[in-house]
Amino acid sequence: MNTNAKPCSRIPLRHRPLSLGVALAIATASTGIHAQVAGPVLDEITVTARKRTENLQDVPISVQALDNTRLTELGVTNFEDYAQLLPNISFKSFGTPGSATIYMRGAADGGDGNASGSQPSVGLYLDEQPVTAIAANLDIHIYDVARIEALAGPQGTLFGASSESGTVRIITNQPSADAFEGRIDVSAGGTKGGDPSYSGEGFVNIPIGDRAAIRLVGWAINDGGWIDNVPGTRTYQLEGGYGYNPNNFGRTNTINNDSFVKDNINTLEKYGLRAALKVDLSDSWTATAGVIYQDSKAEGVWENDPVNFPTADSKIQRFSDEFNNDKFSQFALTLKGEMGGQSLTYAGSYLDRDVQYQTDYSKYGEDAYFVPYYACDYSATGPDLATQSATDCTSLYEYYHADNAYTRSSHELRLQSMGDGRLQYTAGVFWQDSEHKYLQQWFQPGDSPNQWVDTAKYGNGVFFRTDQKREETQSALFGEATYNFTDAFSATFGMRHYDETSKVKGVVGWGADAGGFGYDTPSDSRVQFTDTLYKFSLGYKINDDHMIYATYSEGYRPGGLNRDAGLIAKIGTQSWKPDTLQNYEFGWKTNWLDNRLRWNGAAYIMKWADIQYTVYEFSLVPCCGSVYNLSTAEVKGVESDLSFAVTEALTLSVAAAYNDAKTTADFELPTTPPKLTVPKGTELPNVPQFKASLQGRYQFKISDFDAYTQLSYSYTGDSWSEIVPAKRFQQDSYSLINLRGGISRDNWGVDLYIDNLTDEVADYYVHPRQYEPSTVVNRPQSFGADFWKKF
Question: What pTM was estimated for this model as a whole?
Answer without folding.
Answer: 0.91
